[in-house]
From TrEMBL:
Keywords of the record: Plasmid
Domain annotation FAD-dependent urate hydroxylase HpyO/Asp monooxygenase CreE-like FAD/NAD(P)-binding: ranges: 6-153
Protein name: FAD-dependent pyridine nucleotide-disulfide oxidoreductase
One Pfam short name: NAD_binding_9
Keyword set includes Protein transport: no
Coiled coil: none
PANTHER family reported in the protein's UniProt record: BLR0577 PROTEIN
Length: 450
């Protein structure tokens, strides 16, 4: 039996675990369940390519919010010549997260017990009227008085089936681009078609160029929009009073556009809105949240989730010279013609059907939206009414303290969620600056109530 069980092996799980080590007494016992061999690094921070950068300056990326200079100090100790306003590599950040956990685990005096259990949680049930029990893939069972779900999301699947693609051509469809070994098979002059135009697309374009690719790259997405860049010099955030904003998406956008036109740089408006995003989201009705997801989300993403200035300049040069070409439309089918892949799509706002011919097709449609369907554990917990889906499909229902709203759970054991699973309540909860604050708050709640 454990005082706390952490389910997951990505950044959220490590942030929660580090806070637990710092805050719980020596008598406490913690179990961390995860089967990812890259424990704590996750997909994003496992890449080794130096051009794959963080999208947030190093000064705001410390794992523990009460040690704000921790990451910058770690960079300096490793001889990295970066300042708080610079954008570090994602590989370095993954190493920093690993090192921070290892440093806390090396502490012997006064530290609580932490068991890292390499297994997959297969099911969860109320047990003994006081705990939650997890059945593990290795046949074991563990129970806990407090549970924190830190399950992330996987890559989104291709939006069409592959029935029309011969088996011989399917090896040139890359469904998970983060397995970078596929890059070694690409010839310098090969034509590449990328589905999706977000941050993952930029990462893959730069990875291709770093591996010697010089051919054409066609990018297909529903709106043909790509992320914008951070300013080369940090902008002063423009303070925004959320309480003065209207309660409709159309009204909010009208005011933000006016502020952006009046500002020296629109980024100052976005950066000023950032600390208030969660409060603004929680003010919106379910109808307005749904309206945002339908109509405003793509524009929010490209302005909000920006790339490092030098990375943006490299990418923009490829666009300007015509190496990277954008297409706005809806993918209809995939096939093969004369030894090449053929992506058929409906051009946006028309009935016209067009086609992109390429040697490779890469799925960069991003991460799937957090939810229950992607996880066997969450589906099992839903079946027993231990959790409930968010009405908009943004993870599971939690309250303002990140505690899961369980419709029929009987035990007094407390169940929390951290990270993407709580997007329905907090919306902006996928970036490190937000998750680390949430993780600390959840652990404080657990520590205060035993």
């Amino acid at each position: 039996m454990y005082d706390v069980i952490v389910v997951g092996s990505g950044f959220s799980a490590i942030a929660v675990t580090c806070n637990l080590i710092e805050q719980l007494p020596a008598s406490a016992k913690i179990a961390v369940i995860g089967d990812d061999p890259g424990f704590g690094r996750g997909t994003a921070y496992r890449t080794e390519l130096y051009l794959h950068r963080l999208n947030v300056p190093a000064g705001r990326m410390s794992l523990l919010p009460h040690h704000p200079d921790d990451f910058v100090d770690w960079l300096k100790s490793r001889g990295r010549r970066l300042q708080a306003g610079d954008f570090a590599s994602r590989s370095d950040y993954g190493l920093y997260v690993r090192d921070t956990l290892a440093r806390l685990l090396r502490k012997r005096d006064g530290r609580c017990r932490v068991d890292l259990i390499k297994a997959k949680a297969a099911g969860c049930v109320d047990r003994y009227s006081s705990t939650l029990a997890f059945h593990l893939g290795n046949g074991d069972e563990i129970t806990g008085k407090n549970v924190v779900l830190c399950l992330g999301v996987g890559n989104a699947t291709l939006p069409v089936d592959l029935e029309g693609v011969p088996a011989s051509a399917r090896s040139r469809i890359i469904e998970n681009p983060w397995r970078l070994s596929w890059l070694r098979r690409v010839a310098p002059s090969d034509a590449v078609c990328i589905l999706g135009s977000g941050l993952t697309m930029i990462d893959q374009v730069l990875a291709l160029r770093a591996h010697g690719h010089s051919g054409r790259i066609d990018v297909l997405s529903r709106r043909g929009l790509a992320p914008l860049g951070h300013a080369s010099k940090p902008q002063v955030p423009l303070p925004i009073d959320v309480q003065m904003l209207p309660d409709t998406i159309s009204g909010i956008l009208k005011i933000l556009r006016a502020k952006s036109r009046a500002a020296a740089d629109w980024r100052g408006v976005m950066d000023g809105l950032r600390p208030a995003t969660q409060a603004l989201w929680q003010r919106l009705s379910s109808e307005e949240r749904a309206r945002f997801l339908r109509h405003a989300l793509p524009w929010w993403n490209i302005h909000r989730h920006r790339v490092a200035p030098d990375v943006f300049d490299r990418f923009e040069k490829l666009v300007t010279e015509g190496t990277v070409r954008f297409h706005a439309g809806f993918l209809k089918s995939l096939g093969a013609e004369e030894g090449r892949l053929a992506a058929s799509y409906r051009v946006r706002a028309t009935r016209t059907i067009a086609e992109i011919s390429a040697d490779w097709l890469v799925n960069c449609t991003g991460m799937e939206r957090a939810g229950i369907s992607h996880s066997p554990l969450l589906k099992e917990m839903s079946r027993f009414h231990l959790i409930a889906p968010d009405p908009l499909g943004l993870g599971i229902e939690v309250n303002a303290a990140s505690e899961v709203i369980a419709p029929s759970r009987i035990s007094p054991a407390r169940l929390f969620a951290v990270g993407a699973l709580t997007a329905g309540q907090f919306w902006e909860i996928t970036a490190v600056p937000d998750i680390r604050v949430q993780a600390k708050a959840v652990v404080e709640e657990i520590a205060a109530n035993g």
